Amino acid sequence: MSALDPGRKDEVVLAARNVAKAYGNIHALKGVNFDIHRGQVTTLFGENGAGKSTLMKILSGVVQPTSGEILLDGDPIVFASSSQARDRGISIIHQELSLAPNMNVRDNIFMGREIMTATGVDFAEEERQTRLLMAELEEDIDPLTPVEDLRLGQQQIVEIARALSVNSRILIMDEPTSALSASEVEVLFKVIRDLTNRGVSIVYISHHLEEALQITNHAVVLRDGAMTAYAERKDIDLEWIVRHMVGDNFDLGAPPAGYEKGDVALSIEGLTVADPGGAGYAVVDGLSLAVRAGEIVCIYGLMGAGRTELLETVAGRLKASAGRVVLKGRDVTGQSISQCIRDGLVLVPEDRQRDGLVQTMTVGRNLSLASLGAFTRGLFTSNTREAGLVGNAIRKVHIKTDGGGAAIGSLSGGNQQKVVIGKMLATDPDVILLDEPSRGIDIGAKAEVFKLLAERAKQGLAVVYTTSEVGECLSIAHRILVMRRGRISAEFGPDVTKEQIMAASGEAVHAH
Amino acid sequence: MSVTPAIDTKAAAGSGKRKKGFVELLFEGRAFFALIAIVVVFSLMSPNYFTVSNFLIMASHVAIFGLLAIGMLLVILNGGIDLSVGSTLGLAGVVAGFLMQGVTLPQLGVILYPSVWVVVVLTCLLGAVVGAVNGVLIAYLRVPAFVATLGVLYVARGIALLMTNGLTYNNLGGRPELGNTGFDWLGFNRLAGVPIGVLVLLVFAIICHILLTRTAFGRWLYASGGNERAAELSGVPVKRVKITVYVLSGVCAAVAGLVLSSQLTSAGPTAGTTYELTAIAAVVIGGAALTGGRGTVIGTMLGAFVIGFLSDGLVIIGVSAYWQTVFTGAVIVTAVLLNSIKYGRR
């Protein structure tokens, strides 16, 4: 629960009244009312495409609303640009941090508004102010440390310090915890509580619903560009949010049943992977695992537990230093990625922007990329066969798109993820490995992805997926493995509780 | 952005929107319209410009740049750059010239006079080897493309100068009694009135177009240029693709060297100096992105013709060579500007 004193005044500092935004004939926002209270946290919940980012862009002056008005301290105001909004004390921290990694903390904080004297930049004064800011945030970061040497969580703090250095009264945070470890999230939450105690208002956007509930005072739910619900924290719970986000029928699914599982499709024997950074320890440490055809296995673990390295080694991207990978009884250890794909072992990578999608190609070309051989006859590709394959993939994976010719950037995050999954399913694999398939996608898309995987498992596909959200373990998986420091620390059936899983992962529940 | 076309079609009835559609059409076909503008302007300024014979002469000039630009396009689509093509062109010419003079084998006490087709094949092989050196340096030894090909630029040029001691091979005609005549065929002869060099360019352009649009290799190239990590995880052999594009670029440069030395009936070690820059310019004017993944053969060909027709036109109307350089530069900057507007909007 929030640490806020319930008796404090909570006047509205910034408000949106009937704000609507249309791009062409697409209505991104349809008359939304939204209040930001002084010294409190307001969280925006909603699926991707619900209009959260559009609303935040309007409040921070990046775009102008088609109709409706913005009230700052009760007076109507029009922001022509984000710098005007910043001058009035409204700052936004984007999901992707905007720091220069090669520069130090001080120079990042004063980037673009250096304190000048007659002879140049006043570094001493900048450093003094940076120290003050860090002391305020109770963070022991030296102003002269290069940002690239900081942990991600500390970089987030620097970003916040930068926003505070321009006297922000209202701070908009878009997915601030998506790359943070559990302990870093605790630090961030402490900073947020300190800020609110000082009268700073926070607007918070997150896909981690449970996390957001820990910190927020008010909850606003958007769906399809309209506000579907508003409530104070004390009146609501997770169920309430989910219900309003997706409508009534929300379910991440149950383990598919009523069919016989096949033989062992993938068997990992004593697999060891040295740290790619060369630090000398093993990120995957003698791990063994067998998955049968038609079985769904979930691997739960915190960041750094070695999940990604495990999957990437099995799929042929990283080299194992010891152990074997056996696919349908055949040793495939050390095979190239393309050989693995041909043999029916595919990987859906964690970071779809960096590893999954080719942004310069269309939806269709992305979907067909891994199965070019299926529509190449002799030397040449066949457009008709490719169109058939792409159309099939779009239908089977339920991608919402104008068609195979649409640009990848035109899809929502969830649909982009479906393209990456669809691309790999189009190769007709026997084993599919998915690294955090639900990262950065909304609950509706999550449920669809899991449903799809469950259906394919019934047809004999072996599925291994990783997650760092406990809720996602308890969905379609027949077996739940907990990974910790490169090893499997526990194995559960589908009837396990969240607490058991978290305990096995080394996550001290709420004990920070 | 996906919805924009639908909106545009609906709104096209309004005159304002129609105007916008026209502007976008101009923008999409900017290299094509630039070429038409150049032809129209110079035709008005000089009666000698708009004649079949002049077009054929200009086209045979374009053939050299065009061949280099095709190779360069492949490399740029991959997200790389090949600065060595001008030197490779020069080296190829010199090696061809060297072979035409006859190769002395002291151990056997004979002089070999390889026939022309052997010379052509060996020269193309040389281009492939130079390209393979680039490719291995970049793909396996992780040298940045800019640096690797810059080094090869110097080395290839140096070897060409060493081979000839700075001199030029002048008699490439061969002798009938040795059976190695016909080298000038590439540069001088015509088929149905069209210079052979232009036909070679046409054939290369068509092959490359098919390679890019209809083969798995083309898809691999676009994918690994757009996002190498994603391509690799989708099973694309990204290293092989990378080496292949540099090899093909080297072969294109060697063929351009053959055509050029055949046109001149001489092979000098300094031939093709700075041609790599013209080739890059043609690719960029043709709308390709230097970051990789975007570009077409048709665009690149238009780009090559824009540069060739512009500089020849300036010669015909008697503008000084120095002004030609200025104009070419202005066209390149404008092209890059338009490209950044186009790709920046996404």
TrEMBL record, chain B:
Cited InterPro entries: ABC_transp_permease
Membrane topology: Multi-pass membrane protein
Principal cellular location given in the protein's record: membrane
Keyword set, alphabetical order: Cell inner membrane, Cell membrane, Membrane, Transmembrane, Transmembrane helix, Transport
Subcellular location: Cell membrane
Annotated TM spans: 25-45, 57-77, 89-110, 116-140, 152-172, 192-212, 243-261, 273-290, 297-316, 322-341
Alphabetized PANTHER family for the sequence: ABC TRANSPORTER PERMEASE PROTEIN YPHD-RELATED, ABC TRANSPORTER PERMEASE PROTEIN YPHD-RELATED-RELATED
Name by which UniProt lists this protein: Sugar ABC transporter permease
